TrEMBL record:
Entry annotated with the keyword Membrane: yes
Membrane association type: Multi-pass membrane protein
Name of the protein described by the UniProt record: DUF2156 domain-containing protein
Localization terms from the record: Cell membrane
InterPro entries: LPG_synthase_C, PG_lysyltransferase, Rhomboid-like_sf
UniProt keyword list: Cell membrane, Membrane, Transmembrane, Transmembrane helix
Main location, first listed in the record: membrane
Source organism: Cryobacterium ruanii
Membrane-crossing residue ranges in chain numbering: 42-63, 83-112, 124-146, 158-178, 185-201, 207-223, 243-263, 310-330, 337-358, 378-403, 415-437, 480-501
GO biological processes: phospholipid homeostasis
Length: 852
């Protein structure tokens, strides 16, 4: 009985151990143990923050006595002698909401820092940035108070507690240990965040945080690993768009930071007043705040004086919301969003310059009294208010070529007409009705008064805070007119922006991409046909709608992306109709990426053809790696097996966030190795990987770290996939040798298991072909020159040599054109198609590299 009881007890124990709750508990404990083991300092700091918050008060934060003792600031250190406060202040939080944010930041950001550069370096960076950031900031305040500087005197009584100071500073130090993708993201987003906080909030903690970021960069430079690239390298178009969108979005939400922080000390803090509800009685400060009496109180009250309800708030808020919408468009490469952001920011900068008296003709000479200590700080505020939107506009304009996605035909024109028409109608309405209600204002207004006041009805209040209020409405009817016309205009702009961005398309019909995919599924369009679905292509359909042609117009040359997609019975008519359409618009039609079977069509038309590359094809049905010629491939497979690297066939949407981030980092590293921009046209990038029809073959090591990635585009026939075409190829610099050979071989072996897969295309190497196949004409020499010029950077010919390892079939790829006279323009258009973001500096780099 005893033995049976022991067996039963052990059985019950095993059952309990395998109970779902027990398994979940052990899994959670195991995860916490691993987190603590890998990030001991980050976890310890989070626990200290939590304990201190529980002791000092979670909801409302620490009591005043605790803040005075452990918080830092001018009075705390300079007058109170609390020399320890720069360090102790980073262990307290203001309230429960901040506690949640700080705990997340400690675990995620500080944990990332500790994982990247180790615990010892993290502790040093934490202590140095928190102590030095506050100490140098206090020194700045001391000098400012001694010199009578307005900001330093205004914040001298504030006591700062801020755990984010060492977190931001440590992250900046860790950026030297990150890859190129995250190094750039950390620095750009980190610096942008702290600068926005300084400009809009302007508390002492914001200054300490900014200085901590600078100290963190210096600390990281001292700790930087050997052979780590520290210079600012080229970014991919995708990453540039993402960063610009983030910057525009952060600048747009700046006024909300003023409200959340409760501070009014930043150079741009008056803009935050637009969202407040308190305002003085009408006219109370109008007579007191004269142009010669420019004080901080005067600036604030003039801003509040103009807020009379929802209208002024909307006039000030909607431009910022429009910029946020534009930021989403920037991230998606919308050209309209780029121009909208440029226009709004430039307009705000010019209006600020006008109304702040920075333009000479505005007649406000007090701004130029540089010798007067009374005005120089106000002047600084005005200059910054102008420069911030202007710099943002210039940066976007300088990167305009990175936003290739055009709006639907006519959409931008309609947006412009509606916007200008609405503005004209509202101006007319305001002047006309205002004249009828002229006695409803104080003082009574004339026609000239209304005309001069028109611009102020449409301008955010923050940019009028130094402008004299000439008259104000005295009843609800006049108030509705006075505050309503500007709000109505910005509502039109905001709604129109959303409509225009939602309709972004290069084809006149919204269903064009869907129709193209239907045709691809039925007819295939050749091994390169799926490239016709990529963003940046214009789509043209025959009258029957059964054939589609994707093309791009570059300098008057309409270059098709691969061959027409449709039934073979319409091939000749489709080509002829498309050529006529191009001729009607003054374009030269060029069919690019054609296979040999199309030559007969163009020979019949009397067009000229020339070979532009060779496509390499593998047949999975006969795939084999036996024999001496396959030694390199077999060695690559064996090397991957020994290194514990496996192949994973998947899609982008099926990947985890960690895997997609690694792929983005691999791509960014590849782009930064080049001296010229990322290629486009028939070469896809990160954006093309996200298509649900595209498949990825990844090389993943035993630690689930992505070593290399390839993407494969489908080719259809009658709704079934009959082939895959290689497009995206990127690998880590430190990945095993032969990892690309391993991935392609594994893809071929996988496709061998499917009887319906007829081919694997390794695609074409642009501007590269075997020497014996060159024809020697003018265009061929031009393309050969481009190929030789780009070879040191992009290695097209080296890529062709690489593909020869797989013993492929070679299929020539052609270009067809109507007139040899246009060949020089065609060659330049092709170069621009592959390098759409090519700048003058890049051209110099290209020519210099070729000359060498």
């Amino acid at each position: 009985m005893t033995a049976e009881r022991i067996i039963r007890d052990r059985s019950k124990q095993r059952s309990a151990d395998h109970h779902p709750l027990a398994l979940r508990r052990r899994s959670t404990l195991g995860a916490l143990h691993r987190l603590t083991a890998r990030r001991p300092f980050a976890v310890a700091y989070a626990l200290v923050l939590l304990v201190v918050a529980l002791v000092s008060g979670v909801v409302s934060g620490p009591a005043r006595d605790i803040r005075l003792l452990f918080g830092t600031g001018y009075e705390s250190v300079i007058e109170g002698g609390h020399w320890w406060s720069p360090l102790t202040s980073v262990f307290f939080v203001d309230n429960g909401a901040e506690l949640v944010l700080v705990l997340a930041g400690a675990i995620i950001i500080l944990g990332f820092t500790e994982r990247m550069m180790g615990t010892r370096r993290t502790v040093i960076a934490f202590l140095s940035t928190s102590i030095l950031g506050a100490t140098i900031g206090l020194g700045v305040q001391y000098l400012g108070v001694a010199g009578g500087e307005m900001w330093s005197r205004g914040v001298s009584e504030l006591w700062a507690i801020d755990p984010f100071t060492p977190i931001f500073g440590s992250a900046m130090a860790a950026s030297y240990f990150a890859g190129p993708l995250w190094r750039r993201r950390i620095r750009v987003l980190g610096l942008s965040t702290v600068l926005v906080l300084v400009l809009y909030s302007g508390q002492p903690s914001d200054l300490y945080r900014l200085l901590a970021v600078a100290i963190g960069l210096g600390t990281g430079w001292l700790f930087r690993p050997p052979r780590r690239v520290t210079s600012w390298r080229r970014s991919s178009d995708h990453e540039t768009r993402t960063l610009l969108a983030a910057i525009v979005g952060m600048v747009a939400v700046g006024p909300a930071i003023t409200i959340y922080s409760g501070a009014r000390f930043g150079l741009l803090a008056p803009l935050g007043l637009l969202l407040t509800q308190d305002r003085p009685t009408a006219g109370e400060f109008v007579d007191r705040c004269l142009l010669g009496d420019v004080t901080r109180q005067c600036v604030q009250e003039l801003s509040l004086e103009r807020i009379g309800g929802a209208g002024p708030v909307l006039v000030s808020l909607l431009p910022l919301l429009t910029l946020i919408v534009a930021a989403f468009g920037l991230a998606r490469g919308r050209r309209f969003a780029a121009w909208l952001a440029i226009t709004i920011n430039t307009g705000l900068a010019l209006l600020a310059a006008w109304y702040y008296g920075l333009l000479p003709i505005s007649g406000q000479p007090y701004v130029w009294q540089w010798q007067s200590g009374r005005y120089w700080e106000v002047t600084l505020i005005l200059v910054v208010s102008v420069l911030v939107p202007l710099v943002v506009a210039l940066v976007i304009f300088g990167n305009l070529r990175r936003f290739p996605v055009a709006s639907r035909t006519g959409q931008r024109r309609r947006f412009l007409l509606v916007t200008v028409g609405s503005l004209a109608a509202l101006i007319t309405f305001y002047i006309g009705v205002g004249w009828l209600l002229r006695d409803h204002f104080r003082p009574a207004v004339g026609l000239l008064d209304l005309l001069v006041d028109v611009p102020e009805r449409f301008i955010p209040v923050g940019f009028l805070r130094l402008e004299r209020v000439s008259f104000l409405p005295i009843d609800p009817l006049a108030t509705a007119l006075y505050h309503g016309v500007g709000a109505a205009f910005w509502i039109v702009v905001f709604v129109g922006t959303i409509v225009c961005l939602r309709s972004a398309s290069v084809d006149p019909t919204a269903d064009a991409p869907g129709r193209l995919r239907t045709l691809l599924s039925a007819h295939g369009g050749g091994s390169l046909g799926f490239m016709t679905t990529w963003t940046g292509n214009s789509l043209w359909f025959t009258a029957s709608g059964r054939t589609a042609i994707a093309y791009r117009v570059v300098n008057g040359i309409a270059i098709t992306t691969s061959e027409p997609v449709g039934p073979s019975s319409e091939a000749s008519d489709a080509v002829t109709s498309f050529a006529c359409m191009c001729d009607d618009r003054g374009w030269v039609a060029v069919f690019y990426g054609l296979h040999e079977r199309w030559n007969l069509v163009f020979d019949t038309m009397g067009w000229h053809t020339m070979q532009v590359g060779e496509e390499t094809l593998l047949r999975p049905s006969s795939w084999s790696t036996t024999g001496k010629k396959w030694q390199d491939i077999r060695s690559s497979i064996n090397r991957a097996d020994r290194a514990g690297v496996r192949a994973l066939w998947t899609s982008y949407r099926a990947l985890s966030l960690a895997a997609t981030t690694q792929i983005a980092e691999i791509s960014e590293q590849w782009v930064q190795e080049k001296e010229l921009p990322e290629l486009g046209f028939t070469l896809g990038g990160l954006d093309e990987l996200r298509d649900p029809a595209v498949r990825l073959m990844l090389a993943v090591d035993s630690a689930d770290r992505v070593q290399a990635v390839t993407s494969w585009l489908p080719t259809y026939r009658d709704g079934a996939i009959v082939g895959w075409t290689l497009d995206f190829m990127r690998r880590r610099p430190d990945s095993i040798n032969g990892v690309m050979e391993f991935l392609i071989a594994q893809t071929a072996e996988l496709m061998q298991e499917s009887a319906q897969i007829e081919f694997l295309s390794l695609s074409i190497a642009p501007l590269a072909q075997s020497a014996g196949l060159r024809q020697g004409g003018v265009a061929d020499r031009l393309l050969d020159y481009l190929g030789r010029s780009l070879e040191p950077v992009y290695g097209f010919r080296s890529l062709l040599v690489f593909k020869r390892k797989f013993q492929p079939e070679f299929a020539p790829v052609f270009m067809a054109f109507p007139d040899p006279v246009a060949l020089p323009e065609i060659g330049l258009a092709l170069a621009r198609a592959y390098l759409p973001s090519l700048s003058v500096r890049d051209v110099v780099t290209l020519l210099r590299g070729h000359g060498q």
